[in-house]
Design goal:
Number of strands: 9
Radius of gyration: 24 Å
Shape: elongated
Order of helices and strands: HHEHEHEHHEHEHEEEHEHHHHHHH
Largest sheet: 5 strands, parallel
Helix content: 40-55%
Strand content: 5-15%
Distance between the termini: 44 Å
Structural class: alpha/beta
Number of helices: 16
Length: 305
């Protein structure tokens, strides 16, 4: 993110951020809007933590769409290394070029300097975000950073500090526009303090009933308010249960769309059981649901502490 230069971000006020999210059907509360504005003002990445399915990744998608700029995603996983995140050489193409040059002395001489040229370089997400030419900065989503090894997390520190990457054969690439960086974490492990210091931090919790109802009505075209409220009651009740995996907002939206597709206007206990696989992802959780008081769940009453 850049606070200077030719490009000026469009968020002069917190309300501007809220209006942008609203225009893209994302129900954002003030903490998220404020954090987003500050991140653009200060030129800092945002670290979003929260349970899976609460809308962290969607923030990056909305910003990319709002800024009309590419969303470049780095999905983190155990064993992720620098080459998969930065760049790789196209060895197959290099070998082909070498073989073609073997019969041509002039090309063989040229090849010595060209074999490590830009045309043989595979750009991976971090280099692609740094080299994005503009006119607006790319949005770089570093998704589920908690799944990467601590070594990779440490490697990111330099990138997020200097926004430049060195390819020994080609030189150093510095960002024309610092990318808008969103990091997400499901908190499967605690992140390094050094990484947190470079970011603005925000915890995204499960939505309140009112917020979840609004999300459903905005994101599920054709749903009526009564069904949206019924879905919300069930989802809020399910999250109060100590399931192995509590359903998130993504599951609430999937369930609402599934009910519409099945032309179900009123949720009854049989509906919950028949469509349980949309919201619960573990056999034990589904089995546990079958033993609960589903009439109480549909009425929004506590079914289990």
């Amino acid at each position: 993110m850049t606070a200077s230069g030719a490009w000026q971000h469009p968020f002069g006020r917190v309300d501007d951020v809220a209006a942008t999210f609203d225009a893209h059907d994302y129900v954002a509360d003030r903490p998220l809007c404020l954090t987003t504005k500050l991140a653009f003002d200060l030129g800092k990445p945002i670290l979003l933590e929260g349970e899976a399915g609460v809308g962290k990744t969607e923030v990056a998608k909305v910003l990319a769409s709002a800024l009309d700029t590419p969303l470049i995603r780095l999905q983190c996983y155990e064993g992720l290394d620098a080459s998969a995140a930065l760049y790789e050489w196209n060895y197959a193409r290099q070998i082909l070029a070498i073989r073609l040059a073997e019969a041509d002395a002039a090309r063989r001489t040229e090849l010595d300097s060209a074999i490590f040229g830009p045309e043989f370089l595979f750009e991976r997400p971090l280099l692609k975000a740094i080299r994005h030419p503009g006119p607006r900065p790319a949005v770089l989503l570093i998704d589920e950073i908690d799944r990467a090894d601590e070594e990779f997390e440490a490697f990111l520190l330099e990138i997020l500090s200097d926004y430049q990457i060195t390819v020994p054969e080609l030189g150093t690439f510095s960002a024309v526009h610092k990318p808008c960086v969103i990091l997400t974490s499901n908190r499967t492990r605690e992140l390094n303090d050094a990484l947190k210091r470079r970011c603005l931090y925000l915890w995204i919790d499960y939505p309140s009933p009112e917020k979840e109802r609004d999300i459903i009505t905005k994101r599920v075209p054709g749903i009526d308010l009564e069904l949206a409220e019924a879905v919300t009651r069930v989802m809020q009740g399910l999250r109060a249960v100590d399931f192995y995996k509590r359903p998130g907002v993504a599951e609430a939206l999937d369930w609402a769309r599934a009910l519409l597709g099945l032309e179900i206007g009123k949720i009854v206990p049989e509906t919950v059981l028949e469509t349980a696989g949309v919201v619960l992802k573990y056999r034990d959780d589904v089995s546990r649901l079958g033993k609960m008081d589903l009439d109480a769940l549909l009425q929004g009453k506590a079914v289990e502490s």
